[in-house]
Amino acid sequence: MKTIIEPFRIKSVEPLYFNTKEERIAILENAHYNAFLIHSKDVIIDLLTDSGTSAMSSNQWAGIMKGDESYAGSPSFFTFEKAIQEITGLPLVIPTHQGRASEKILFSILGGKGNYFVSNTLFDTTRANIEFSGAEGIDLLCEAGKHPAIAAPFKGNMDVEALEKFIIEKGAENIPLCIITVTNNSGGGQPVSMQNIKDVRKICTHYNIPLFIDACRFAENSYFIKIREAGYENVSVKEIAKELFSYSDGCTMSAKKDAFANIGGFLAMRDEKLAQKCRNLLVITEGFPTYGGLAGRDLEAIAIGLNEVLDENYLHYRIRSIAYLTEKLVEAGVPVMQPAGGHAVYIDAKAFLPHIPVNQYPGQALVGALYLEGGIRGVEIGSLMFGKYDENKLLIPATLELVRLAIPRRVYTQSHIDYVAEVIIEVFQNKESIKGLTITDEAEFLRHFTAKLKPICNS
Ligand SMILES: *Cc1c(COP(=O)(O)O)cnc(C)c1O
Q1: Beta strands 265-269 and 92-96: pairing type?
Q2: Would you say the CB of residue 264 lies under 6 angstroms from ligand 1?
Q3: Closest by alpha carbon to 142, among 153, 128, 126, 129?
Q4: CA-CA distances (angstroms) from residue 73 to 53, 287, 296, 304?
Q5: Which of 65, 66, 202, 417 is deepest in the core (most CB within 10 A)?
Q6: Which atom of ligand 1 is nearest to the CA of 49?
Q7: Among 166, 119, 165, which residue's Cα sits nearest to residue 140?
């Protein structure tokens, strides 16, 4: 087989700014060892997120020029609506400025004290919006998904038995919604199988609980189904995506992921009454129902991006490029989540830094080390992001301590990725010198965005 190449050529470039290790030591200290507080001009390869960081295509930029900025009834909205209806089969489409705006609206309506939202794994903003409403978010991930080193094809699957047990225990009337996140961002970018979605649908139907898809990476998940699930080899990714949504009652979406847009999102659903409630809130917080929080030009870019992302040459390259970095790290003995996920490489920080206990945030310590060594910015997905405190203010750690290196779509070349692998391997060879961290300042919700930390110096 021939080498897989980037299925695009580059028309416009952005310079990278190089700095020295000495400069980065000062930068990291000034950023309180929190990668979110580093200025992006001080980052050489930015793998903080794949959100809103995609390179848009020439077609999308053409769409930007075509965007119609009418307040009400813009043709750009109808283009947007039609693209989403065609791909998802969901009839009612509500634009929002990004995924969490969809979540805020949905959970303001369905949430509230005493309610439980069940999921394979809730993403951090989804969980925060659920908890902010007073409700509780429950992750019921399959067993394989909890073990980074175990290779299984669909580690994003929901634990169907645990789901039924939970429903019986808490009562279906207290569970307004089940949410399947595809792919499972917080759990390693791992896909969910069609069979699992069908099984969850069956249980939801039996107990009369609606099922929503957190669809941020629906195309990547659909491609995994094509290459990993029996019976789908010869089905187009577009048809797979349509089938996936057919089992749902609705979805939330961040267009900053699998729509190649720099901003945007939407809610889509079948229930007219729920949609009306959502639109009522939308007008207060986002805008008129034909633009949500977006400009007409954004609606055009999203509509085009949603179709481009279903191109199988693109998805083949995308999934393969994540596997390429994963393989290089595995070869060097670096502990990474296996198999490779859809949008990011996840380093198992607990295994990488066994000398740092979880209450000293090994993931965050590793994020700092990668920045110092090579100017690479990743993000901790572990106890800084998901940790809680018990009544004695002792950390209740997250299940996994991961460092996510999210790969922006269509942005970095293979030699950039080779550089990333070199830096990680270099850090791995000197891992004993990395120190744990302690938090000096934190917020109540989504603390990882703004928390300040400092290294723990052994006396
Ligand atoms: C990014 C993301 C969201 C939130 O979307 P934003 O556009 O960042 O607000 C929700 N769920 C998942 C799985 C995500 O990856």
Answers
A1: antiparallel
A2: no
A3: 153
A4: 29, 13, 10, 19
A5: 417
A6: 1
A7: 119
> Letter for the amino acid at 190?
Q
Whether the ω angle into residue 125 lies within 30 degrees of 0, i.e. cis, is no
d(CA 183, CA 244): 12
Q: Which atom of ligand 1 is nearest to the CA of 254?
A: 7
Q: How many Å apart are CA 84 and CA 95, to the nearest integer?
A: 10
- 365 CA distance to ligand 1 centroid (A)? 24
Strand, helix or coil for residue 64 = helix
Q: What is the pLDDT along the chain (459 residues), one digit of tens a residue?
A: 677 889 999 999 999 999 999 999 999 999 999 999 999 999 999 999 999 999 999 999 999 999 999 999 999 999 999 999 999 999 999 999 999 999 999 999 999 999 999 999 999 899 999 999 999 999 999 999 988 888 899 999 999 999 999 999 999 999 999 999 999 987 789 999 999 999 999 999 999 999 999 999 999 999 999 999 999 999 999 999 999 999 999 999 999 999 999 999 999 999 999 999 999 999 999 999 999 999 999 999 999 999 999 999 999 999 999 999 999 999 999 999 889 999 999 999 999 999 999 999 999 999 999 999 999 999 999 999 988 899 998 999 998 899 999 999 999 999 999 999 999 999 999 999 999 999 998 888 788 999 999 999 864
- Longest CA–CA span in the chain (Å) reads 66
Q: How many residues does the chain have?
A: 459
Q: Which two tokens stand for residue 144?
A: 């394989």
Give me 367's structure tokens: 């994020």
Residue whose CA is closest, atom 6 of ligand 1?
A: 99
Q: Decide if 40 contacts 380 (C-beta within 8 A).
A: no
Contact 382, 362 (CB under 8 A): yes
Q: How far apart are CA 122 and CA 144, in angstroms?
A: 17
Q: Which two tokens stand for residue 97?
A: 């400025």
Which helix or strand (DSSP H or E) is residue 312 part of? helix 312-331
Instruction: Record the tokens describing residue 8, joined without a space.
Output: 């695009």
Please state, as a whole number, how many other Cβ atoms lie within 10 Å of the Cβ of residue 115: 20
Q: Using a 6 Å cutoff on CB, does residue 186 contact ligand 1? A: no
Do 51 and 418 form a contact (C-beta atoms < 8 A)?
no
